[in-house]
Amino acid sequence: MTEPVSTRAAARHASGISPAKRLRRRIALGVVGTLLLLTAGAGAFAVYVYQDLNNGIHRSPISMPSGNPDFGVKQNTGETNILIMGMDSRVDQNGKPFPAEIYNAIHAGDQGDGGYNANVMMLIHIPGNGGRAQGISIPRDDYAELAGHPNGVKMSKIKEAYGLALDEKLRELVRGGMSRDDAYQQARTAGRQAQINTVSQFLGGVRIDHFVEITMAAFYQVADAVQPITVCLNQATQDKYSGADFPAGMQEISAEQAMAFVRQRRDTGHTGVELTDFDRTRRQQAFMVSLAYKLKQANTFTNPATITSLIDTAKQYIAVDDGLDFLSFAQQASSLAGGNITFTTLPITEFATRDGKDVNLVDLNQIHSIVAGLLSGKTEAPAGTTPEAPATGQTEAGGAQTPEAPATGEAPTTPENSTSETPADNTYHDWKEPLQAGAIPCVN
Based on the number of CB atoms within 10 Å of its own CB, is 378 exposed (0-12), middle (13-18) or buried (19 or more)? Predict the structure, then answer.
């Protein structure tokens, strides 16, 4: 029997690059805010460029989950569910390397790093009645059944469904004589399908109408187009892995600093701040709010050059399903532009080791109940549990140790425009409380 190649090997074969370096976990999130706000707030110019965006963006023919009739909540009431997937790959939608300047800016290695894990998974639920939207974050290491058992794997980290299915399909098609470029695109579609189906069943059979897949380059390019962006931290913090070096309080950050802001999951300084993967998820949620605030307040949509840059980024580094139409979606998205959304991170019960991997164990009945309540608008998410965090430097999927960020010989940049002022009514000291959009949130 042929030995399965790793998901990172699939990336090498697809793009013709040298052997991969050690895996480093990183995420990219926030571009969805731009896509939604672009269609909702760009006005006449958005209509002018709509055709370019709608036709030029990368699309996948996905069979979107119609939902389990036993889910417990009616799912055909005019609502829209969008799955946001942030990939840890360091290549574009065609499997090609990013420009060198992007690798230099994101401080996350090059095309040989990462893989095809869906390191960010967030379900955006927009009610059909105009009510408050919900953003439901799924911790990437939750132990789950993978839809279709790709590469023979039934249970693993939920984020791995994409890469395993991509690898399986890529090897199958290449063995059958298909060119690698053609096989790669079909394999990406298979990966997306497996990840979407896995998330749907994990949440209890939720209908998913659309997906948006983003890369690190997309995140960076969007942040670069609209920088500086205002964020707020409860404490000063430093991290040699992500390059984070932030004071406490409200501050404006650059695109490079934004990458560190959303990637940081530990503090290696001397502040004593305890951070985990869940705090990083909270940072992602906070950054989406900050990005939406920036796009709403600034004259972003009256600057043709900025909009053109955002559209070019979307076409190269973002993928969506072939049924998503940005213009028709604009009316629903306008509620997000106004901050009418709450972000919740799903709880876990404990940390454990399964098949040599550090995973999060969950109570599926609890997950299903929480999600049904949030989607019905009847309940708020209960506070999550706080198990003892695994030691910093825990092993990655496959047992690789988390390496340090490459030395640059330069100290991380400290934001210049910072202040100790923090918002009085939008401060969060842990990841368990639902985060309300609208004002800039202050987080750990």
Answer: exposed
